[in-house]
Amino acid sequence: MGPGWTIDEKRHAGTEHLDPEEVARFDEKMPFDPSVEIDVLREFGLSREDTVIDFGTGTGVFPLAVAKHCDRVVAVDVSETMLNAVEEKIEDRRMRNVETVHDGFLSYDHSGGPASFAFSKDALHHLPDFWKIEALKNVGNTLEAGGIFRLRDFVFSFDPQDSRTEIESWLEEKNRSTIFTDEELYVHFREEYSTYGFVLEALLERAGFEILEATYEDDFYAAYICRWVDCSE
């Protein structure tokens, strides 16, 4: 890919991922218990010999937790500010098997043996659909044959005919129950690129993944377990 036509992922990262003050309160705004996700990977054979890659690692909650269950963890993010927070945690905990890489889905160039597992939470929706499939291809190319990709993200499963009603209802509920401002909620629809589940499933399959499980939650969120089979071969 030439530099003249490729997307700049850093421009799509979202200001909340780049601003030091926002990053400092990120874990409070977006609490995340990684134990359930680690259990999923363990069900699919995660072992002490494996490499795990976390795309869009944020403040590093997942890689720091999964590190005790595997040999190597690579925490990838386009935000240097986020990675600074991860590196502080790594140093504080004296962890030796977690490394950070300042890259995105598209620009990450894996080194070493292929990973057995890849993980991503709430990051892919920052890319338009064309670039989603390019990103998914690159995720797959980091994995060994049969490697597992666990993807969690904002995905729409409501009927497209009901989009306005569903979104306005969701915004009203979030306004009552979260610490997000109205503008932070509006930006998600106005400037980011969440897509429908039927679209994302097609993108995953065309990129070379077999979808083993797809779970849709509350019409606005989804989780997938996928196996890398690379349909281009």
Short summary:
With 233 residues, the protein is α/β, with parallel strands linked by helices.
User: What Rg, in angstroms, do the CA atoms define?
Assistant: 17 Å
User: Could you tell me how far the N terminus lies from the C terminus, measured between alpha carbons in angstroms?
Assistant: 20 Å
The tally of structural domains comes to 1
Strand share of the residues? 15-25%
CATH superfamily heading: Vaccinia Virus protein VP39
Top-tier CATH class: Alpha Beta
Instruction: Fill in the CATH topology.
Output: Rossmann fold
Helix count, DSSP H or I runs of 4 or more residues: 9
What is the CATH architecture descriptor? 3-Layer(aba) Sandwich
Task: Quote the average pLDDT.
Answer: 91
Helix content class: 25-40%
Helix and strand run: HHHEHEHEEHEHHEHEE
Q: Biggest sheet, open or closed, and with what strands and sense? A: 8 strands, mixed
Structure description:
The protein has one domain: Vaccinia Virus protein VP39 (Rossmann fold), CATH 3.40.50. The protein is globular. The mean pLDDT is 91. 33% of the residues are buried. 37% of the residues lie in helices and 24% in strands. The protein has helices at 20-24, 26-29, 35-43, 61-66, 80-93, 129-141, 163-177, 182-190, 197-207, and strands spanning 51-55, 72-77, 98-102, 115-121, 143-156, 195-196, 209-217, 221-228. The longest helix has 15 residues, at 163-177.
Reconstruct the topology from this structure:
Elements: H1 20-24, H2 26-29, H3 35-43, E1 51-55, H4 61-66, E2 72-77, H5 80-93, E3 98-102, E4 115-121, H6 129-141, E5 143-156, H7 163-177, H8 182-190, E6 195-196, H9 197-207, E7 209-217, E8 221-228
